[in-house]
Amino acid sequence: MFPSTQPLQPASDPRGLRAAMAAGGRGDAADASATHLSSLSPSMLQDLMRFEKRDGDRRELLEVLAAGMRHTQPLAIRLEAPGQEMTLSVYPSDGLVHSQQPVAEFLGSDLSRVQVLHVQPALSRPPRDAALLARMGQTLGYAPLGPVLWAVALTGARSALLPELAGQAAYRVAPGVNLGGLPMPRVLAACVQRLRRQTSNLREIADWPGLSREGAMRLLNALYLQSALIVSRSHPAATNEGWEGYQR
Fold first, then answer.
1. Residue 130 lies inside a defined structural domain of this protein
2. How far apart are CA 129 and CA 180, in angstroms?
């Protein structure tokens, strides 16, 4: 579903890598609030290391969700939002999320202020009974994953391209992909329809009516997390406009 992620450097000492990630590479009081990742696999750790913040800020939710989707790894993500903490469990292979708080309530909050406190493998799995999930999924705290990925990409803290999309690239919506059920204002719907018909680079997309450069990058992130985006590095329209995806 997603291209495999190639680590920036090989992990010759997974245990050392785990320790470094768990400590956040710092020896001060900031360690207490850093994201602890020591229980994750080395490949997942290296994936998330690409997003380490030079200013010591916590990791953004979109980055963790993107890594979980690429590795199809169920995750339990402890989040801090204004006035509360909550755990969002993500099940990529099942297309589900779970939360004790109603997911609709979470999506209606200010997602730009949500911070990741802790990431670990999910300790439980969703019920395998499809009929039970269809009948009682909401009561049990389960909801579809797609709308969560969409909302976090469009309104969360990260406003730059994910690294997988950055660099010399042009973009197009994959033929036949179904984006039904996702909240899509008219402006975004028009952009998606245009990307179904043509391959465009970031500069071109940002100039479309009703869109900005940030809006274009958010839309591309959102489409990518729906497995709806084709990224071409060799298309004549490809440019280097997306390199800022490596920046925060």
1. no
2. 24
pLDDT of residue 236: 85
| Beta-sheet strand order (sheet of 84-91) | 115-121, 75-81, 84-91, 96-98, 142-144
42 and 93 belong to one structural domain: yes
Q: What gap in Å lies between CA 194 and CA 248, rounded to an integer?
A: 28
Query: Residue 124's pLDDT is what?
Result: 82
Distance CA 227, CA 210 (A): 24
Q: Which domain holds residue 120?
A: 29-125+139-155
Tell me how many domains the chain contains: 2
* 8 Å CB contact between 137 and 95: no
In a domain, 211, yes or no: yes
**151-193 pLDDT per residue, tens:** 999 999 999 999 999 989 999 999 999 999 899 999 999 999 9
